[in-house]
Specification:
Blueprint: H1 3-13, H2 38-49, H3 54-61, H4 75-80, H5 82-98, H6 110-120, H7 132-135, H8 137-148, E1 160-164, E2 176-180, H9 181-193, H10 198-209
Antiparallel strand pairs: 1-2
Length: about 210
């Protein structure tokens, strides 16, 4: 594992903050340094250390710079993606908590992604994702051509990303599944446009008004 990644994880686990990366076209009015919630830390460390020693977990984390498809279906390698995905997940959840999700633009081609997604998956339920709709052999065969059409259009389209199963809830171990980056974009763009993420934003507004 690179020293910088190890230092960032140590800082976050100690309750510190690291700089917020510029990954989205829309950001909160007053962006703050990213401070990882404890529950996301627990997800990361629990995934990494479950069923393997710490030394093995750290060595596996070195592979995070490679595309997800390089590893096939190896569950141990898939688990290690949490190390790279934790920051993306926390930034995104902060965004939908701070900005009206219907106004968010996640990529420069949101319209095309959304149109293609609903053309290929018109009836897919996105407020509560069934893991089988992403992970079953039949689902993977259906997702593959959808994902590959964005290979040269969306940066890191096949990188491992954390996706919430239920859109009304935050990231927890029980509510999180791995997906590719383009699957994340497709589902979350649809959730934003179809109002599924409104509950997260409204909860933040109501809490602030109390």
């Amino acid at each position: 594992m690179s020293s910088s990644l190890e230092e960032e994880l140590t800082t976050l686990l100690d309750g510190g903050a690291i700089p917020l990366p510029d990954k989205y076209d829309v950001a909160p009015e007053s962006p703050q340094p990213l401070k990882l919630r404890h529950n996301v830390c627990y997800i990361v460390m629990g995934i990494l250390l479950n069923d393997q020693g710490a030394a093995e977990a750290l060595s596996v984390a070195d592979a995070l710079s490679l595309p997800a498809e390089s590893y096939g279906n190896d569950p141990n390698i898939e688990m290690a993606w949490a190390m790279k995905a934790y920051q993306h997940a926390e930034v995104y959840f902060n965004l939908i908590s701070s900005v009206d999700p219907r106004l968010l633009k996640l990529t420069r081609m949101d319209d095309g992604i959304y149109t293609a997604f609903r053309k290929d998956f018109p009836d897919l339920r996105i407020d509560v994702i069934d893991p089988e709709d992403l992970k079953s052999p039949a689902a993977k065969e259906k997702w593959r051509p959808f994902c590959m059409q964005f290979e040269n259009q969306v940066e890191d389209f096949n990188y491992g990303t954390l996706l919430r199963l239920e859109s009304s809830k935050e990231y927890t171990e029980e509510n999180t599944i791995f997906s590719t980056r383009i699957q994340f974009f497709a589902i979350e763009i649809a959730r934003n446009r179809e109002g599924c993420n409104d509950v997260i934003y409204n909860h933040r507004l109501n809490h602030a008004a109390e």
